[in-house]
Design a protein that fits this description.
Chain A: One of its GO terms (molecular function) is transmembrane transporter activity. Chain A: Belongs to the binding-protein-dependent transport system permease family. The structure holds 2 protein chains of 2 kinds. Chain A is mostly helical. Chain A has a domain of 152 residues: Orthogonal Bundle (MetI-like fold), CATH 1.10.3720. Helix content of chain A is 79%, strand content 0%. Chain A is built from 8 helices and no strands. Chain B has a 6-stranded mixed β-sheet, sandwiched between helices. In chain B, helix 4 packs across helix 5. Chain B is globular and about 55 Å long. At the A-B interface, helix 5 and helix 6 of A face helix 2 and helix 3 of B.
Chain lengths: 228, 252
């Protein structure tokens, strides 16, 4: 069997795995946003106690290796009587870690917009809420796009660690195929190519979005989301 | 107590941490008047303005806008709509064009119809000589142009008075003129203004009254010509002499 035919026969399995990889990425990023945004708000606008609490979470989530986290979720928690299905365990682990990183992105973006913008908005009679939605957020989102694109690519690639707790995603599908074909080089290269295509799509999409909503003077001049 | 003053400040105190920066400031402003506050840095001039609009709530004392006591008023967002504020660092919203900057308070705070707001925004930009820059973003404008947009933004809200917090201090000397000219026109049109500035020429020729502050107190206030030529206090003379030397007498 030549390589091309080998890839052809492997592709249906690999694409099936790719679909799972995309699902893992999507849910993990979503958890990252849903948990990361409130953490960012707590850090910027919260009181000291709230700030300290989320700082502990963030410290922990950024210090524990993802692999260790996944193993804890999958093999540790059942000892306490809590058994989570592997797909969910993977999403929780990857998502909670991404939340810590994403919160830093959002916090930085909000803070870099600056207090004087908030002050000016309040001086016009805007409530804090209105000032956030109409003045701070539109600028912060633009500033956050490049690092968010970067983080998305990292999460996409790190979903491969879900392989270790048995999620049948792209990498594990490849493993299965290698077990029967004994062609690790070709299959791993194919897998690498698929990851490459996926990250390129993610970054390209966000880069387009960034260009479409570009405003002179906001964000890093000349910077773009491809810089990962 | 009813009053005919547009703005009345009574015994205003303010402390940051343990440091008392305002030690009992009282003055008033009538409709159509321009008053200029001068004084050394760290004297609390900007704090007075920030106290009035409550971006920094005062520690003690009372401020009245017409008959309303605004230091404890609940509806601060409504009161702020009636008081314009022009910032030293312009405070323009970076994601909006000059026109968008002027419009946003009208549409989002005053709930004005979009077309109506646009018309008013263009009118106010024209008033500060920037109609041609309506679609420029702040990063595309010079400092003087930015500050004029800031003034147009304050004007569009049709406030009862405008507070200017060192509006030309962040500008290159050759750009201060265009901003001062706009302010001078406003004063002549009868806008009520309270200005913190080091521009002695402006103070001397435009102000109805000059307030000299130092160390959290008003040292002397009165007719600018008198303060410049024959002040009651030695400190007033020293300070004004020093500033005039530094900045020149400007257009007298």
């Amino acid at each position: 069997m030549n390589n091309l035919e080998l890839i052809k026969s492997a592709l249906p399995y690999l694409l099936e795995g790719t679909l799972v990889t995309i699902q893992l990425t999507f849910w993990s990023l979503l958890i990252g946003i849903v948990v990361g945004l409130p953490i960012a708000f707590a850090q910027v606008y919260g009181n000291k106690i709230l700030q300290a609490t989320v700082a502990v979470y963030e410290r922990l989530a950024r210090s524990i290796p993802l692999l260790v986290m996944l193993l804890l979720l999958n093999y540790g928690l059942p000892m306490l009587g809590l058994r989570i299905p592997i797909f969910r365990a993977a999403v929780i682990g990857i998502g909670l870690r991404s939340a810590a990183y994403q919160s830093q992105i959002y916090r930085g973006a909000i803070q870099s917009v600056g207090g004087s913008q908030m002050k000016a908005a309040r001086s016009l009679g805007m409530s804090k809420m209105k000032a956030f939605f109409y003045i701070i957020a539109p600028q912060a989102i633009r500033i956050a796009i490049p690092p968010v694109a970067n983080e998305s690519a990292i999460v996409l690639k790190d979903t491969s660690l879900a392989f270790t707790i048995g999620v049948v995603e792209l990498l594990r599908q490849g493993e299965y195929f290698i077990a029967t074909s004994n062609e690790p080089m070709v299959i791993y290269l194919t897998i690498a190519a698929i990851y490459f295509i996926l990250t390129t799509i993610v970054n390209g999409g966000l880069s387009l979005f960034e260009k479409k909503y570009q405003i002179p003077g906001i964000g890093i001049e000349g910077g773009h989301s491809d810089a990962y | 107590m009813p009053t005919k003053h547009l703005l009345r400040i009574e015994n205003l105190h303010h402390s940051f941490e343990n440091e008392e920066v305002l030690k009992g400031i009282s003055f008033s402003l009538d409709k159509g008047e321009t008053k200029v506050i001068v004084g050394p840095s760290g004297t609390g001039k900007s704090t007075v303005l920030n106290n009035i609009i409550r971006l920094v709530p005062p520690t003690r004392g009372k401020i009245y806008l017409e008959d309303t006591e605004i230091t404890s008023a609940k509806n601060i967002n409504e009161i702020r709509q009636q008081i314009g504020f022009v910032f030293q660092d312009f405070g323009l919203f970076n994601h909006l064009t000059a026109k968008g900057n002027v419009m946003i308070g009208l549409t989002k705070v005053k709930k004005m119809d979009k077309n109506e707001a646009e018309e008013l925004a263009l009118f106010e930009l024209d008033r500060v000589g920037l109609k041609d820059y309506a679609n420029s973003y702040p990063s595309q404008l010079s400092g003087g142009q930015k500050q004029r947009v800031g003034i147009a933004r304050a004007l569009a809200m049709q406030p009862k008075l405008i507070l200017f917090d060192e509006p030309t201090s962040a500008l290159d000397p050759e750009l201060t003129g265009e901003v001062l000219k706009v302010m001078r026109n406003l004063a002549e049109e009868g806008m009520t203004m309270l200005v913190v500035t080091h521009e002695m020429g402006f103070a001397r020729s435009v102000a109805d009254e000059l307030i000299f502050m130092e160390g959290g107190n008003i040292v002397e206030q009165g007719d600018p010509e008198k303060l410049f030529t024959d002040p009651d206090h030695k400190r007033t003379k020293e300070f004004l002499f020093q500033l005039t030397n530094l900045y020149g007498e400007g257009e007298k």
